[in-house]
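Hi Y.,

Following your request, here is the sequence exactly as I used it, all 416 residues.
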Amino acid sequence: MKNINITELPNGIKVISEKISYVKSFSLGFWFNVGSRDETPENNGISHFLEHMFFKGTKKRSAKKIAGDIESLGGYLNAFTSKEHTCFYGRGLTDHIEKTFEVLADMVQNSVFDPKEIEKESAVVIEELYDIEDSPDELIFDKFESNVFAGNPLGMPIIGTEKNLRAFKQKDLLNYVNENYTSDRFFIVASGDIEHNDLIKFAKKYLARKFRAVNEKKRQLILNPTTDLHVQKETQQVHYILGKITYGFKEKKRNIVSVLSHILGEGSSSRLFQKIREENGIAYQINTFLNSFFDTSTFGVYLSTNDKSIHKAESLIFEEIKKIKEKKVNTVELDRAKEYLIGNMLMSLESTTNRMLRIAQSIIYFNKIKPVEETVRNIQAVGAKEIREISNEIFENSNLTRVILSPKNLLLQKVA
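Below is the corresponding structure, written out as tokens. Let me know if you'd prefer a different format.
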């Protein structure tokens, strides 16, 4: 593709860059195709915990110096962990890309995982876990995925468990990094005012450690039958999800589900928002979601309301589902949904960080850079017939699962 270069280094690490000459900055990410999906119940949470620990000191830098070396140049350093990836990234002005590269390289190669820092940071991450426990609108999504992915690593929470967080030792972190942070899962991705050859030069200069070549563990998707789940918790509202598993990134039908999701419950003009919030005033939060992985996604409806309104809200959700299953979406509504999705995507690409994220996910999931134009064409190709067919497939009664988080158990109607 124009302005994008890909090089596989002799050690198997891939370097991908996108040259954007009209900006004066860059976004640089060190990606590892490793996340909580690669964990076991015994070490669940270690990928996310490592994300924290990589910032806590190397053989030549303290935690303060890691941050200071970048921030003193007006730059920014951060990281995130998902169920399938871990990314360490920096942003800054073009003149400072080598320093940012060197700091990131130092972190992923030379972190010492000091036992004292492990003890302190475990307390910090446990507080983060408590924060999620105190946020029912976050917690319910963890509970939903643990339910629909029961028996599969995808069902485990990214943050892990308090028991595991208290138990992690230096040797656990070192062993996990050695086993999982391999060359074939390591991607260096940059977007902005950069030169590809500079990145190759930096990689040869600063990546001295010999990473293991290959992680031979294969990810499997094991799906078991699910039932409704009630989580009893003292909350002011009832939090509710109705959903199921559907197509992942590798499936073309995911585009149809994405358009369906927008029509049904994304944005203020969506059917559920208009029906439940605007017309009936019985929920502040009401939306659909599509959370995707390589080979699967979770799709559903989320709302929060009071215990007196939950039955009516659920009935209205079922009504809207019935309508979209039985009647074709009109052209105006369909075109509006597609334009919204395309517009949001294109506007997001005005950020070098979002461009870097998109490129990385494309190369990891598809082993190629998927052109923006291809994504636009795939969205535009979705028709009313496909929306109706996918609605009937997804909302087949026997496959829907409910998760309810509330102070007391609620007897809700059967899925209609």
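The chain has 15 helices and eleven strands.

Thanks again,
Q.
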